[in-house]
Design goal:
By secondary structure, the chain is α+β, with helices and mostly antiparallel strands. The protein is 35% helix and 21% strand. The strands form 7 sheets. Strands 2-11-10-3-9 form a 5-stranded mixed sheet. Strands 14-13-12-16-17 form a 5-stranded antiparallel sheet, with no helix packed on it. The chain has a 4-stranded antiparallel sheet with strand order 5-4-7-8. The radius of gyration is 28 Å and the shape is globular.
């Protein structure tokens, strides 16, 4: 073909037309016009491959095929959210916020049910797309995300920025995908969320391109935007060319929050994306920094989940599951029932106290609910449908797997046998997975095989496996054996925090593992209760769980540490200064963000709190300081202006 008059200009026209169609839902060109110009651009690019624009719409078709996905690290952590399920719980959550912050404004929007994604832009270009993963490390799926038409390949913003959001499939597109899968004798997806997640994990990006994925931003990671509220930051992001949610609302009271929540429920069938709730966020960025984080989620945001969908089914049997910590959980095997596209055949019963309290019996007709990611559970027994043939469920006295006697601690029933096959297999699987020790090649089936063949009986045995132990196993050739043993060896020297979380201690995940490793090092095996609960973000339940685990497994853990030789991060002790070991509160408008000053003060050994109390040593205030400054003055706590702070910091430098 002849060279187009202006290739770059025609690329920009295509981008404009695609944005109007996919983002604004307001086409400004016909399909015929778009296709004609698209193929002119494509022909030119094939003849001039060195001139292809990085944001050309031709890159949206995919075609890149990977052998596997690589891991990538988020610059800032992607957090989970606290769930609330009733207006009473919302009121309690708001009260906790307002105990710390004066008259906060809440930014509310729909919570779409999809796959969380983090987009990294640098110098205006999409550099990397990473799945949420464990919040710190995810899978790099940039090739697939580039096929999503509502993700700009370039934006008019040059600073480094992480844009977080949800990858979804609209409900009508989901139905078409499943129709095609059935025609091709493929298993249909259970729900749009599974379809979105599955589409992102295609090794062939051309498959992802056919799935009509959409990306809705809901937050930011690393960024230097100077807007004072999250809502204005997100408005700026939407103006860069991203989709915006169909509805948002500024709320100040629990009644306003509830009114918007009920509005979204009433629009649930009309909104084209699957929603499972509403997100409530404190809008002011400084107030977010004040409130801070627990070890699991931000204290300034929560998910107000939609009411669960109820179905009636029948309990056919009770199965006892042995968890990796030895806890016995009763599970109801029910007559399969379809709830929002997912076939539910099992429901948790939590514990035997609940079975007795609800008088649940085998053969009962029951009401079962499922909401979003919440595990299906039984809410009510329909006793009026009983015919006398129902069987009473009794507490077990021996482990269903190893038949050893169970420890019965009322609500909690545990198998204490460290050689219990169920406990061994599950604990090793957890230990080896990506977010823990990341032993490549040690998947579920391999662990089950190694335990079944008595090659390993516990986690520690992994570090004593020899090549000859694996030579006679089916499917294990020299290359595979070498790879597995190398992966196990490479896990030696793993940071202590990951080793702690890999042990599978109840309530102790990666974040808590980092805190404990930094505080105690290898002495975590002998940590004392008072010192554990004194750590910010570690509560009584977590402390008791850690102590119980280390009491039972003390010798085992010491041997494991000896085998792994974990890397221990040293806690850096701040030098003596005016703020070391002091509790500081920041309030009012400051020339720098509170997070900026918070980082400086914490490096000096201070604890930066969001609320004023008798234990507060300094209140540092800027313009428009309110109740916190007044309370500090009432309690005769020393107050510092921002200028006072800067003078003190200059002395310490």
């Amino acid at each position: 073909m002849t060279k187009p008059i202006n290739y770059q200009k025609e690329v920009q026209i295509l981008i404009k037309w695609a944005h109007a169609y996919y983002v604004e839902d307001n086409p400004i060109a016909t399909d015929e016009e778009y296709d004609k110009l698209y193929h002119q651009v494509l022909d030119y690019e094939e003849q001039h491959p060195n001139e292809v624009a990085t944001d050309s719409p031709t890159k949206r078709v995919g075609g890149i095929i990977r052998d596997e996905f690589t891991k990538a690290t988020h610059i800032r952590r992607m957090w989970s959210m606290e769930d609330v399920f009733s207006i009473e719980e919302v009121g309690e959550w708001l009260a906790r916020v307002e105990k710390t912050e004066d008259s906060p404004t809440y930014f509310c929007e729909p919570k779409f049910d999809g796959a969380s994604m983090n987009l990294l832009y640098e110098n205006g270009k999409l550099i990397r797309a990473i799945t949420r993963g464990d919040g710190t490390i995810g899978e790099e799926v940039t090739d697939n995300v580039c096929t999503i038409r509502s993700v700009p390949l370039s934006i008019d913003y040059k600073e480094q920025i992480e844009i977080r959001g949800e990858v979804v499939i609209r409900k009508d597109d989901f139905e078409k995908i499943n129709e095609d899968r059935l025609k091709n004798d493929e298993t249909p997806f259970a729900n749009p969320r599974n379809a979105a997640a599955g589409s992102l994990r295609q090794l062939d990006s051309s498959v992802s391109a056919k799935r009509k994925l959409a990306f809705y931003p809901w937050g930011l990671g690393e960024n230097t935007l100077d807007h004072q509220t999250l809502s204005t930051k997100m408005a700026y992001i939407h103006a860069l060319g991203f989709l915006s949610p169909p509805y948002t609302q500024e709320c100040r009271t629990v009644d306003e929050v509830e009114a918007f929540y009920q509005k979204l429920i009433s629009l649930r069938d009309e909104i084209p994306m699957m929603m499972d709730g509403m997100v409530i966020k404190v809008d002011d960025v400084d107030q977010q920094e004040d409130l801070g984080y627990t070890v699991k989620f931000p204290k300034w945001m929560c998910a107000y989940k939609f009411p669960a969908i109820e179905k009636v089914t029948q309990i056919n049997a009770i199965t006892l599951q042995v968890g990796r910590t030895g806890a016995i959980t009763p599970v109801a095997e029910v007559e399969p029932v379809n709830i929002e596209g997912a076939m539910v055949a099992r429901a948790t019963l939590h514990n035997f106290d609940e079975i007795e309290r609800k008088d649940i019996r085998i053969g009962d007709s029951v009401i079962i609910i499922r909401s979003g990611d919440v595990i299906p559970k039984i809410t009510k027994v329909l006793t009026d449908r009983r015919d006398g043939n129902e069987q009473i469920i009794t507490r077990p006295i021996v482990c269903p797997t190893c038949e050893s006697e169970l420890l019965n601690e009322e609500t909690l029933i545990k198998c204490q046998n460290l050689d219990c096959p169920d406990r061994v297999v599950n604990s090793i699987i957890h230990f080896a997975k990506k977010g823990c020790m990341n032993i490549d090649g040690l998947g579920n089936k391999i662990v089950e095989l190694l335990v079944k063949q008595n090659i390993i009986k516990n986690i520690l045995d992994l570090y004593h496996i020899k090549s000859e132990d694996l030579e006679n196993l089916e499917g294990f050739k020299e290359k595979r054996i070498t790879k597995l043993i190398s992966a196990i060896k490479n896990s030696q020297g793993t940071p202590l925090s990951k080793v702690i979380s890999a042990l599978g201690i109840e309530h102790i995940g990666e974040v808590a593992g980092k805190v404990l490793a930094l505080e105690f090092g290898l002495n975590v095996v002998a940590a004392e209760y008072d010192k554990i609960v004194a750590i910010d973000g570690i509560g009584e339940e977590m402390a008791n769980s850690l102590l119980e685990f280390m009491r039972v497994n003390n010798e085992f853990v010491l041997k494991l540490f000896e085998a792994i030789k974990p890397t221990v991060e040293e806690k850096v002790e701040a030098k003596e200064n005016a703020f070391k070991d002091k509790t500081v509160v920041l309030t009012g408008s400051l020339s720098q963000s509170r997070s900026y000053y918070k980082a400086i003060l914490e490096n000096l050994g201070a604890k930066v709190s969001g609320s004023v109390s008798k234990k507060t040593d300094y209140v540092i205030y800027g313009e428009k300081a309110g109740s916190k400054l007044k309370k500090a003055q009432d309690l005769t706590i020393e107050t510092l202006t921002e200028e006072d702070l800067l003078r003190l910091l200059e002395k310490e430098s």
